[in-house]
Amino acid sequence: MYTSTSGRSLAALCAIARFHQVAADPASLAHQLGLSPSVRPTTDDVLRAAGLLGLRAKTVRTSVDRLALTPLPALALMRPDTSDAGGPPWLAVLAQCDGKRVLLSEPGVAANDGDMHAAAARTVGPTIEPIEVFAAQWTGELILIASQASLAGQQARFDFSWFVPALVKYRRLLGEVLLISFVLQIFGMVSPLFFQVVMDKVLVHKGMTTLDVLVIGLLAVVIFESVLTTLRAYVFSHTTSRIDVELGARLFRHLVQLPLAYFQARRVGDSVARVRELENIRSFLTGNALTVVLDVLFSAVFIALMLFYSVPLTLIVLVSLPLYFGLSLAVVPILRQRLDIKFARGAENQAMLVETVTGIQTVKATALEPAFGKRWDNQLAAYVSASFKTQNLASVAHEGVHLIGKLVNAATLWYGAHLV
Hints:
Layout: H1 8-19, H2 26-33, H3 43-52, E1 55-61, E2 74-78, E3 90-97, E4 101-107, H4 113-116, E5 123-130, H5 131-137, E6 138-147, H6 164-169, H7 171-187, H8 190-205, H9 208-256, H10 260-264, H11 268-276, H12 278-309, H13 311-319, H14 321-358, H15 360-365, H16 369-419
Helix pairs in contact: 1-2, 1-3, 2-3, 7-9, 7-12, 8-9, 9-12, 11-14, 12-13, 14-16
């Protein structure tokens, strides 16, 4: 007969195994390991049990500061009770850590062998604890577990790297979009050069024939640029639509395969709000990220062209770059914090809306409409306040960039006039 203490380790391992789509039963594992009902499995026993299930497991020592970077879920080795100080540590499922809190799930084990088959399916929790409380009970060791198909525990992490395979799959099409954008940037330099030639050559020498040739060439460039822009828009829209379909399907499969503890620890609206952010993340990766790459590449072309015209004037522009970097370093951390607050407020509103509509019969039956209305007003006011602060800071940063640009223009005109 297993006690609740002796069965914790194998039940916790079975919970991790189900996360990796591996069926496991703690009583069966104990029988295969030759463990008597009164003996608590050691860490080596758990590693052997993981091998029997076809999982790869290893013990690592880490600190609470690095838990947020550790592939989770994992098994955390917790200090034994005071009544069993000399025994091996017991295990808990460490499901998630955000740097300040941890999501723990302790297996609930029955008092007889018949109920032991259902032990892995029941948990005491899940519970969310401050990381300080967890650190006081934790030995500092984790058992990292990965399936054979995911040697590094890729199923456990869900971050920007999760989107990379879909982008790599369509890298050729995205590369074509980037190349067309680069060519369009070069064509964008034709108009300023055209007006320079008209001012310096045509008007001074009254060469109307030269003007006709230049206009014909400019028209050809404009038409070609319009065709390229249309083709780029079509290819980009088609590619991003295919990426959206693939990411949406993968996200849904990932969501439904998450352990039950994930949904027990979160409101429905929180999960819905995060799913709705998928398109924004994809838009950033295929929009802003590509724009940054293009700007970096083309900035070299612009700097070379400016150096060809005037080295002193180019130095004025280059001197302004540290100002842009300084403004970014000062604003981005605060803006990121306010955006996190805004998203959290929006997720709370989404969660309340979904849960209220889902349980509207209960709300009406208990006459809680005024209370829910007041709560909604408070949450909505908090969201609007967070959005207002975020927009104000973004406006200040935007105007700061414009101010630096205008000062650079003024300095360039002033110094350029003196050079003439």
